[in-house]
Write a structure and sequence with these properties.
Strand order of the largest sheet: 18-19-20-21-22-23-24-25-26-27-28-31-32-33-34-35
Mean pLDDT: 81
CATH class of the largest domain: Mainly Beta
CATH superfamily of the largest domain: membrane protein fhac: a member of the omp85/tpsb transporter family
Structural class: alpha+beta
Low-confidence stretches: 5-19
Number of strands: 35
Radius of gyration: 36 Å
Number of domains: 6
Oligomer: single chain
Shape: elongated
């Protein structure tokens, strides 16, 4: 009975403290200096004539403390009068960073922390920001960084100045990267797959040699994807860890369990009843090709992309391909692709992130899918590819997230900008002289995606200067405008019997006419002065004079490469024609190029390249083709020979021909010098010929095949990429001039 009484008393007391409330007739606020009375009331959810009790007081206290405006708060309710006493947190006058030399990194840190000038200061938030800075330093390789804080308080103004003294310490360098476990692949190859790099003395400008967790996480994904593309379907990077030694270096270790290698077995496609199976014949062709082949994640992606491509072309806008897999005999996999109608989604909003220097419009102009459009996967992926094609971003990532309603999606496009300026220097060394050239290029001028380039080439015979300007989305046409101004003086009086001075400009554009088919019309206007020497042949002398040329040129490019940068499969077909509108000679020029890429060995990343080139120049009025217009073998298609010093010779003068053809075969050599990093070798065979002389039958115009073979080397130096080639001629004419060595050096800014 007594126990029940106590229980009843406790309930009554609790009920009275919780339920009993008093109406507020007056509100008094004391201690506030910067924060207005009205702001305090709003923050605390307080208003006159409210019924207030102990629970509401506690709730208001919590809301006011959560604002971070106040160091101390007291609320009392006395006879209908609510008295609020506050002590404001000091305001931040200034935040000073010391110890960080990189302005770019300092900017990132200052933008990432929560505390800012004119905000209220709290010790709690300061500690959180210190931890954030340490994590940012750690992710950039500064594992031993320390942050010291000091405060300068102004009691009169109730303000504080914050000083953050950052001691970065030495960056955690990766001395060695090793791979353990059932890895099956050589370490040398795996080192090429991952982003992290071993520290070498020539890599002092590379951030990849420093330990940081985001890069390690990326490495694990890269390794697993690489193994899956080699058939190791069940591969796992079990763990990764770093060992620190007393010399201040880290050893980075990846533990890999590759598992068995798998092969494609049966592949099937299930379609909805109202879909036409004949629309998906290309998918069935891929199935037949893959059966019995080694499993590859990339091949699965190609199948899904082909399904999306066909569906989009046939206006099946909203589909989803669900993949079922069944493992057979521990080394084969059956795949079933179930195409089903999916829920219809539309693009609510597209966010562009990470473009600190690039104007957002430049990126949006490359989007095929727009806000309000159906979310078509093909157009979405092509939009991302178009952004990558600008060539001004280091990375372009995109993700789709839920919108405000179930059928709306938001697309986040995250770009990482890269240095877009480039300084180049090149030279060639031959049997009869040398060439030097250089240039400056900026691909993202003023952040508008504008391309500016200027270059100068000087040799014993030629001085050539050129300026190029290109603007994307010219006049809001979604097309890029190209224009160039150039001036060339070529003194070939000694070797070719003539001297040409040419100045002119061109303007053109390029746009995608159909899928993967690009059309590039151009107008070219120039003035040319042609002079010959006293010993020149009569055929050349009669061409002496000044020419005013107006040409309409156009190009067609059909690009089916899997990537524009280092493609490993696919092909590109190009046709270029120059048509005279007003010209002294009325020459028409036709150029055709076909290039095929093929992966020769996926495990070693050996890629073969075969290219065929042909050019023909003919007069429309049966006149002789002007000497300066005659065709020469392009410099990069016949290595081992000097530029322009191949083909028919007229009285010791190299005159070129009406026709040129070239075949180029090459492959990279990933297995050479395994102990040397950042060096890529390639082997090439070049075969070419130039012939056809229309103004004289006495000139030797034999179809002598020129050929060469050699090794190309690309080496990443601290100041930029260096490339050079060593060539050996296989077949040549007695009059041809050879060139055994050439190199090129460039860097970016």
């Amino acid at each position: 009975m007594i126990n029940n009484f106590y229980k009843f008393l406790i309930v009554i007391v609790f009920f009275s403290t919780s339920v009993f409330s008093e109406q507020i007739s007056n509100i008094e606020i004391n201690g506030n200096q910067r924060i207005s009375k009205q702001t305090i009331l709003v923050l605390g959810g307080i208003s006159k004539n409210d019924d207030f009790n102990e629970n509401k007081i506690n709730n208001s206290l919590k809301k006011l403390y959560d604002s971070n405006f106040f160091k101390d708060i007291k609320i009392n309710l006395i006879n209908g009068s609510l008295i609020i006493e506050v002590v404001e947190n000091p305001i931040i006058e200034d935040i000073e960073f010391t110890g960080i030399k990189s302005k770019e990194f300092l900017k990132k840190i200052s933008e990432s922390i929560v505390l800012k000038n004119r905000m209220s200061f709290t010790e709690d938030q300061l500690q959180k920001d210190v931890n954030l800075i340490k994590n940012a330093l750690k992710s950039n390789g500064f594992y031993f960084a320390d942050v010291e804080t000091s405060l300068i308080k102004n009691e009169e103004l109730n303000s504080v100045r914050i000083k953050l003294d950052i001691n970065q310490g030495d960056r955690a360098r990766i001395k060695e990267i090793i791979f353990i476990g059932d890895k099956k692949i050589k370490d040398k190859k795996l080192l090429e797959v991952i982003a992290s790099e071993e520290h070498k003395f020539w890599k002092f400008i590379s951030n990849k040699v420093y330990l940081n967790q985001p890069t390690i996480d990326l490495d694990k994904r890269l390794l697993e994807n690489y193994y899956r593309n080699l058939g190791y379907h069940k591969v796992k990077v079990l763990n990764s860890f770093a060992e620190f030694n007393d010399q201040g270096y880290f050893k980075l270790i990846f533990n890999i369990d590759s598992g068995n290698q798998y092969f494609f077995n049966d592949l099937k496609l299930n379609l909805p009843p109202d879909y036409q199976k004949s629309d998906f014949t290309n998918v069935e062709k891929i199935f037949n090709k893959l059966k019995g082949e080694r499993y590859s994640l990339n091949e699965l992606d190609k199948i899904l992309s082909e399904i999306d491509k066909i569906a989009s072309a046939r206006l099946y806008d909203f589909i989803n391909a669900e993949v079922e897999e069944t493992i057979i005999d521990n080394d084969k996999i059956n795949f079933t692709f179930n195409v089903v109608d999916s829920e219809k989604f539309y693009v609510e909003r597209i966010n562009i992130l990470g473009n600190f220097n690039t104007i957002e419009e430049v990126i949006r102009n490359k989007l095929i899918v727009d806000e309000g459009d159906p979310l078509n996967s093909l157009l979405y992926n092509k939009s991302i590819d178009h952004i990558k094609g600008l060539g001004i971003f280091k990375t372009v990532n995109a993700k789709i997230k839920d919108g405000s309603t179930d059928n709306l999606k938001i697309i986040d496009i995250i770009v990482e900008e890269k240095p877009t300026g480039e300084i180049t220097l090149g030279a060639g060394v031959g049997t009869s002289g040398s060439t030097i050239g250089g240039g400056i290029k900026e691909k993202n001028f003023l952040g508008k995606g504008i391309n500016l380039a200027t270059n100068l080439e000087i040799s014993e015979e030629t001085i050539k200067g050129k300026f190029v300007y290109s603007k994307p989305n010219f006049a809001y046409t979604d097309n890029t405008l190209f224009t160039s101004i150039q001036s060339t003086t070529t003194d070939n009086l000694t070797d070719f019997g003539y001297k040409v001075s040419n100045a002119g400009f061109s303007v053109g554009t390029e746009f995608e006419q159909y899928e993967n088919l690009f059309f590039s019309p151009e107008i070219d206007i120039s003035i040319e002065d042609l002079k010959t020497n006293s010993s020149a042949s009569s055929g050349l002398k009669k061409q002496e004079g000044t020419y005013e040329d107006f040409y309409f040129n156009y190009g067609l490019n059909y690009d089916l490469r899997n990537s524009k940068y280092r493609p490993s499969s696919g092909n590109k077909t190009s046709f270029y024609q120059e048509i005279p509108v007003i010209s002294g000679n009325n020459e028409i020029s036709n150029t055709f190029v076909y290039t095929q890429y093929k992966s020769l060995n996926q495990e070693t990343s050996m890629i073969g390249k075969a290219s065929f080139y042909i050019k023909a120049i003919n007069s429309l009025d049966n006149s002789d083709v002007r000497i300066s217009k005659r065709a020469q073998v392009p410099y990069n298609r016949l290595r081992g020979f000097e530029k322009g010093k191949v083909g028919p010779v007229d009285n010791s003068d190299y005159i070129g021909g009406n026709y040129v053809t070239a075949i180029n075969l090459s492959t990279n050599l990933p297995g050479i010098l395994n102990t040397v990093e950042n060096v890529d070798f390639s082997y090439f065979i070049d075969v070419a010929n130039v012939w056809g002389v229309d103004y004289s039958s006495s000139i030797d115009d034999s179809n002598k095949i020129r050929s060469s073979t050699g090794i190309g080397v690309d080496f990443l130096t601290p100041i930029g990429p260096l490339s050079f080639s060593l060539s050996q001629t296989l077949t040549k004419n007695s009059t041809d001039k050879t060139e055994s060595f050439r190199f090129n050096l460039g860097t970016t800014f």
